[in-house]
Amino acid sequence: MDANRSVIQGMFRGRERMKYARFEELPVWQSAIGLAVRIHGMTSKAQFRGRFSLRDQIERAAVSVSNNIAEGFERGTTQELLTFLYIARGSAGEVRSMLCLLEGISGFGDLKSEISDLKSLAESISRQLLAWADSLQSSKITGQRYLTDKTRQVEKAARERKEFLEKLQQIREQHKPGPVRGGNGGSK
Question: Exposed e or buried b for every residue in 146-184, given b needs 16+ CB within 10 A?
Answer without folding.
Answer: eeeeeeeeeeeeeeeeeeeeeeeeeeeeeeeeeeeeeee
